[in-house]
Each structure stands twice: as C-alpha cells, then as structure tokens.
Task: inverse folding
C-alpha cells in the first residue's frame, strides 16, 4: 500500500474499532446515554424480545465487530460494521433521530472505506519496516 495511506488507514481502524467496542460495552451500562430511547417503536414491535434484551444483543454484536476491526479480521469487521451502521441509521430514521441517522450513514461509508483499504495492508510505524499485511513484492 502507498505509505501515504498508512495514517488514514490506522485512524479509521482504531477510530471505528474503538467506537464500536465502546458503544457496544456501554449498551450494558448506559453511561454515555440511554440507548433504549434510540430504538424505534416500529422496530421494537417487531422484536421477539424486550427492548433491553435487544440492546444487549446489539451490544454483543458491536463489541464483536469492534474487536474484529482491531484484530486480524479488519476487512470483515469493517464490512459488517458498514452494513450494521446502515441498519442502525434506518432504525434511527424511523425513530425520528434524523441527525444521528445521517451521521451513521457517514460512519458506514467510513467503515466501507476501511474495508476496501484493509486488503492493501499497512506498513509498520517504524521507518523502513516491511509491510505487515502483505508480503513484499518484487
């Protein structure tokens, strides 16, 4: 990968990975916000479980996606995050949180961009170090 892409790749990887992990963990503690208020009444009526149980499942999924992005499965985690964020945006739009829905669409685009960058690899932060994601090419 062009070394000029290393910093944007790492910023997206750590930003999206940590965001998903921390938001997922907070689904169990509600320190950042009351996550249940973001569940659309339309979606809530379709769920086979209570809204709090649904938020727990959402939290587990988000933690898994975040950890995948931060690990060797960056590409796959980022693809799941991209689709997941579009679904979240749809739920938020149904709930009337259009401003937050638009932000999640933009985050979805960022996650998709990360997924596209991930197969290219990233060089180590040490100058002159070999590519840590793909073998050296002649």
Result:
């Amino acid at each position: 990968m062009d070394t000029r892409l290393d910093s944007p790749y790492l910023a997206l990887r750590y930003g999206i990975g940590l965001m998903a992990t921390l938001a997922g963990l907070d689904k169990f503690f509600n320190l950042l916000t009351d996550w249940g208020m973001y569940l659309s009444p339309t979606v809530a009526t379709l769920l086979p479980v209570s809204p709090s149980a649904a938020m727990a499942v959402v939290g587990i999924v988000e933690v898994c996606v975040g950890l995948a992005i931060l690990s060797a499965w960056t590409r796959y985690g980022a693809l799941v995050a991209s689709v997941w964020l579009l679904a979240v945006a749809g739920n938020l739009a149904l709930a009337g949180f259009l401003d937050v829905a638009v932000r999640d669409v933009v985050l979805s685009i960022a996650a998709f961009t990360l997924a596209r960058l991930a197969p290219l690899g990233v060089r180590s932060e040490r100058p002159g170090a070999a590519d840590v994601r793909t073998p050296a090419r002649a």
